Amino acid sequence: MNNLRKHFPLIEQYTYLNTAATGLLSEPVFDYQQDKNIDFLVQGSLYRDKEANILTEIREKIAHFFSAEASRVALVPNFSFGFNTLLEGFSAGTKFLLLENDYPSINLAVEARDFNLTYAQIDENLEQNILQKVETEKPEVLALSLVQYLNGIKIDLTFIQELKKKYPQLLIIADGTQYLGTEAFKFAASGIDVLGASAYKWINAGFGNGFFMFSEKAAHQISPKTQGSDSYMGKYKENGLHLLGNLEPGHLNYTNMGSIKIALELQEQIGKEDIEKHLQILSAEAKKKFTHLGLLEESVLNRKEHSTIFNLKGGEKLFQRLTQKDIICSQRGDGIRLSFHYYNTLEDLEALVEVLKK
């Protein structure tokens, strides 16, 4: 992975442990955006005509990368836009199961509507908590983040598959913003009905782009009223209005959306499995060292597997010390959030630990 660090100039000066806030922009994505903006500058409407097929290419790249159907991949400016649009396709009184203190873009959007709500607790028994609520409360929809933004707790994806088999009528909607780009993932086999993500974090595609993948069941069951000229235009929309068109009612920024394709191609060059293995090693080593220093909460300590996001016990004084040592991280909740991606190394972890020890 070390030879790939050249694509990310910022890490020559800083120890960047903040992908959970903003993923770094790579030079290939930057160069692509520069080239496309120059084309638009000098070509005007001719640029749009030339780029007529780009959205189809992006859709198909996402589908190939995550093992989904291209006809059921929608391009959106960000997760929040797509999720709010999606929620307009549910009738009042629909019963939702949410997670307590999940990412605001999920919970606030659902809570703002006239739905029937119930909640499961996020702790070391997350999966059992969800199962108990499904069995007793019988929700119609489960909406959750695959990885928790505050402490990095990751849902067991095998549990999601088993839950779907046991309760096939339960519609499962997930936010993959803090997950997609960290592991090899196959949407078609996941048991998830709708999976959306903003692409500026672990996919490293910059701002203003995201996507939703959805199952055939979801395509028939969810019907938002959003429409626009682009709801009917382009490949995969020829058969009339459906969920894909509902999620894409108007013009999209070709350059921003195209950045997803370039970012995914870089991950393909590295190798999805290699990225996954590298991050598993980093996560395991980080958890071991943070545990030794007594910096992790019990709910994280007691889980077998973890993501690459950690929230360490510490306040403003520790945060300022890390910042002074050129370690970029975030204050989240009651602690300091650190996150590792494929451009991070064990040397980055050691540099962090040396500061924490002092």
TrEMBL record:
<keyword id="KW-0808">Transferase</keyword>
<dbReference type="Pfam" id="PF00266">
    <property type="entry name" value="Aminotran_5"/>
</dbReference>
<dbReference type="InterPro" id="IPR015424">
    <property type="entry name" value="PyrdxlP-dep_Trfase"/>
</dbReference>
<dbReference type="InterPro" id="IPR000192">
    <property type="entry name" value="Aminotrans_V_dom"/>
</dbReference>
<keyword id="KW-0663">Pyridoxal phosphate</keyword>
<dbReference type="InterPro" id="IPR015422">
    <property type="entry name" value="PyrdxlP-dep_Trfase_small"/>
</dbReference>
<dbReference type="InterPro" id="IPR015421">
    <property type="entry name" value="PyrdxlP-dep_Trfase_major"/>
</dbReference>
<feature type="domain" description="Aminotransferase class V">
    <location>
        <begin position="16"/>
        <end position="352"/>
    </location>
</feature>
<protein>
    <submittedName>
        <fullName>Aminotransferase class V-fold PLP-dependent enzyme</fullName>
    </submittedName>
</protein>
<keyword id="KW-0032">Aminotransferase</keyword>
<dbReference type="GO" id="GO:0008483">
    <property type="term" value="F:transaminase activity"/>
</dbReference>
